UniProtKB/TrEMBL annotation:
Residues 103-219 form the Phospholipid/glycerol acyltransferase domain. This is 1-acyl-sn-glycerol-3-phosphate acyltransferase. The lineage of its organism: Bacteria, Pseudomonadati, Pseudomonadota, Alphaproteobacteria, Rhodobacterales. InterPro entries: Plipid/glycerol_acylTrfase. It comes from Ruegeria alba. The chain crosses the membrane at residues 38-59. Keywords: Acyltransferase, Membrane, Transferase, Transmembrane, Transmembrane helix. Residues 1-20 are annotated as: Disordered.
Length: 269
């Protein structure tokens, strides 16, 4: 049936109205984005230097690790807000993380924004820390803060020592505290997940903990390789069901099964 001229005109007018609204919204948000970037440039360095120097003065205070970790989390959230980046996570997923115990957290690695997004998404009720290469933990300005926050130093040049250090750290952690590992080892270069290393599976088997997989979506679109300043947008943090290792199966089989579960979630997006 032919479309009436009046109906076609109404549809065209509706489309023009929607386009005008979108343009007006973009124009209205442009000054806000500009103000945020100016604040970040002018005040940001002083704020983050304050975060870095706080441990030098307060590291020996009782309860330092707890309140300093929350301070760092708030700083990450404020940085993302100033950059115009929003992190999406469902209330059910946030509740699952708040109740998570005896786990090792693994996340895929897409960009330098991944750690900040995770810090913003995970609720305060869930304690976690990162495994970091020992060179970072030796930096004079960062050493006290990293030590106070409980970062696990990893010697990437010595695989057996790295696993021994990681295993000991995980076994000593309280049940509600988890270490965060990037199973790919570095940022993925392709459109899919990179190959997984066995560290998380070995640490889980050694400690008897489960693995809590978390999939990061779209962070590389906001900050791809070779770019210094990210664009605004949304990063999706997807929390999967706990992964339980099978001690009767080869380690490689557990690694492949873990990667397959995370890849399925990654591809759905």
């Amino acid at each position: 049936m032919a479309q009436s001229p009046r109906r076609g005109l109404n549809r065209w007018q509706g489309q023009m109205t929607d386009t005008s609204v979108s343009r007006n919204a973009a124009t209205a948000s442009a000054p806000v984005r500009l103000i945020k970037r100016v604040v970040l440039v002018l005040i940001g360095p002083f704020y983050f230097l304050f975060i870095a120097f706080v441990p030098l003065l307060c590291a020996r205070r009782r309860g330092f690790r707890g309140w300093y970790w929350r301070l760092v989390k708030r700083a990450c959230s404020r940085l993302l807000w100033l950059l115009g980046i929003r992190v999406e996570i469902t209330e059910a997923e946030r509740a699952a993380l708040a109740q998570d115990r005896d786990s090792i957290i693994v996340i895929n690695h897409r960009s330098h924004l991944d750690g900040f997004a995770l810090m913003d998404a995970v609720p305060d009720a869930k304690w976690f820390t990162f495994a970091a290469k020992k060179e970072l933990c030796r930096h004079p300005l960062l050493r006290t803060g990293f030590t106070g926050a409980g970062l696990v130093e990893i010697d990437r040049k010595n695989g057996s020592l790295a696993m021994e250090t990681l295993g000991a750290a995980v076994r000593e952690m309280p049940a509600r505290r988890s270490v965060v590992l990037f199973p790919e080892g570095t940022r993925a270069r392709g459109e899919s997940l990179g190959p997984f290393k066995a560290g998380a599976v070995l640490a889980a088997r050694d400690s008897g903990r489960s693995i809590r997989p978390i999939v990061i979506h779209a962070s590389d679109r906001l900050l791809p390789r070779g770019r210094f300043l990210p664009q605004g947008g949304v990063i999706r943090v997807e929390v999967l069901e706990p992964f339980v290792c099978d001690p009767t199966a080869p380690v490689d089989a557990d690694v492949a099964r873990l990667r397959a579960a995370m890849l399925a979630a990654f591809d759905r997006a």
